[in-house]
Amino acid sequence: MLTGERMQQVKKIYKKIDITNNFIYILFVVGLILAFIMLVITFLNSKDQRNDIYVPQIAEPVTITNVTLKGSDGSVENVQLPIKRDASHSYAYSFVVEENSQGMQQCVNVNVYYASFIIRHKDEIIFQKIVPKDAFLPSMAASFSIIEVPDRLIGKELEIEFTSNLSNNRAIMIPEILIGTKSKIRKYYFSKDLFNILAAIALFITALFIAIIGAFFTKIRQTARNLFIVVLFAIAISFYLIFRSWIVLYYLDNDILVYFIKYTCFMLVPLPIFLLFLNIFYENDYYGWRTRSFEYFVIALFMNLIGQWTLTLTGISEFILMEKITAFFAFSASIYIPIAIATLEKHLIKNKRYLIISILPLAIALVSTILVYYQTFEVPLVPFIIAAVIFFMLIQFILALKKYVSEYSLAIENDFYSQLAYFDSLTHLSNRHDFEKDVQRIISKEISFMNLYLIMLDMNNLKEINDNYGHKMGDAYLKTASKYFAQLEKKYDKLKTYRYGGDEFIMLAYDKKESEIQKIITDINNLSNRQTELNCNYKIDFALGYAVCYNQNSFEIVAIKAEADKRMYESKMRKKGVKANVR
Question: Rounded to whole angstroms, how far apart are CA atoms 162 and 87?
Fold first, then answer.
């Protein structure tokens, strides 16, 4: 039962829910610092193959961008890398690896998307990364390679040839290559991808923080679907950005794992957005055509996710070959959702303006990213994407938190006032209504027992106290006795006390032995021997009687209460020295 004291405790807890002053923020900052330190230490301790030491003063890697590109169709052209070309042909260009001034081992770094490559000197193959056509994933997705160049080939002309692994007509991206020591190449990509990695980590930690808030509201029986949907969206974005980083691919050294995680996250990106706004429609009791269209989109996205996984695992197709389907959904979400929300009548949905403000930057970021990606195969404008995602999360988090806190406060208040009907404000015990409710629960067997003792108590001399000392003193006697009854409830389990009315109380004791009941009665009788702080000549004293029911199926409240009432009346008469008459 939610008593007045308990209500005050709950309200104190409620007031402490202050996300602007929470230790999670400290963990957030500490986590970012530790992640940064860990990554820096990892790369500072990286070592070159030769001499097995780290030499800080090594020349920076050289990027080969301006080349003469030769196609298998006989074409020859001077180009600047990276550049897209027709995937039906192979393409090659030459380069020279110069000697390192410090005598360190020189390496060539090659990063390719969905292509095989061979590095050769004349007819000698130095390195090749070719996937058989019957391989589980013939596309090979993204590949990060650092190849050591033998000393005998330093200063000599080498050739690298690229061939598309894809069976469709998607263009092949001819990449630039990087020449330098292994440690410098790693540091180059570390510095290049550092912001993306840290931003993604920060986004992930923010998602965890929101998940903790959502778990709190779930624990207090408040629906927190919107918060968890936002968390899913943030995790999908953060994982996608992390697993697109070349340095992460290098250290994981598992192309297939990265491929599956990256494309799964890509397919998940539009799903939480549709789910979030669909849930907002449901919360606002809006079931128009927009709601139905969002439902269809959600079903289609789930089918897309399951279908692409199935086709990829069975070898029928691959994620990359179905990439445009996912891109279509993401692009559609970016265009359709803002329009659907903006054209919705204001009275049909709450916070319409804030919903539009939250989705617009994200929609622009997604559309721009998709358009540029199909030109370069790179994800551009990462800072803008991160900022748009965080802005979207922040607005949705504030709106959801405001709603949940309001609902939680209202639920506490409603619960408190509904409990007042079953709560005696003077004694802080259950009242007659609660007793009658529990009787009904016993009859319906919602409450079950092996035996049940009903103890009736009547406070002696309360009328005389009220007449001689006033009702304020009488109330003080009732409060003192009630505090003692509350102590008995803590001392004996399955014992509940009700103020039945005026100076009458009822106790229900479940599954007790007769000896335990006698101890309870003894404790009640000893109450008259306890000294009170009340300035009154009357002791706290009760007449009591009890009855027992040994079989729940034969429980009859009228009979058991009448028997206990008879025994209580006899007790009262004995204390007055008068022979009891049956009432």
Answer: 10
